[in-house]
Amino acid sequence: MSIVRDDGVLGGEPRIDGTRIGVRHIVGRIVDGEQSPASVADNLEISLAAVHEALSYYEDNTEEIRALEAESRAAFDRIDGLEPKPNDQSAGDEREACHEGMVSSGVTMTEDDIDDVLYGDSD
After folding, report:
1. CATH number of 3-61: 1.10.10.10, 2.60.120.10, 1.20.1530.20, 1.10.230.10?
2. Which terminal Cβ of the chain has fewer Cβ within 10 Å, N or C?
3. Beta bridge partner(s), residue 6
4. By the 8 A CB rule, do 109 and 11 touch?
5. How far apart are CA 52 and CA 59, in angstroms?
6. Rounded to two decimals, what is the model's pTM?
7. Among the residues of the chain, which ranges form H helices?
8. Which pLDDT tens digits describe the chain residue by residue (123 residues)?
9. Within a 10 A sphere around the Cβ of 85, how many other Cβ atoms?
């Protein structure tokens, strides 16, 4: 396995080839979540070698990953400031559930993706 980037997957963030598992997701579980690499590999059903490859990528590209994390946090902050659309009383609850689910799973989304989740596909 290798670390790849594809604009059509995870918004172009580095990820394990053949998966939608981002480097940030793995690093977050180990660094912030205090899980062992073996536990992360088991939970995500990937090889321990893939986890170590993601950690190696992080070590070699720490500033890039930190910038992606800052960008993601800024997007969440913008979401938190959104007001529900008229006649949509549940949007606030949906926004919170979306936010919590994305944070806990390490999902990366664009603002358009978030609007689609909260308000339906606008295309």
Report:
1. 1.10.10.10
2. C
3. 9
4. yes
5. 10
6. 0.63
7. 23-27, 37-44, 48-60, 62-80, 91-105, 111-119
8. 699 999 999 889 999 999 999 999 999 999 887 899 999 999 999 999 999 999 999 999 999 999 988 888 888 888 877 765 555 555 556 656 665 555 555 566 666 666 666 666 555
9. 9
Q: Are strands 15-16 and 3-4 parallel, antiparallel or unpaired?
A: antiparallel
Q: Are 1 and 8 in contact (CB under 8 A)?
A: no
CB 53 within 8 A of CB 2: yes
- CA neighbours within 13 Å on the CB side: how many for 77? 6
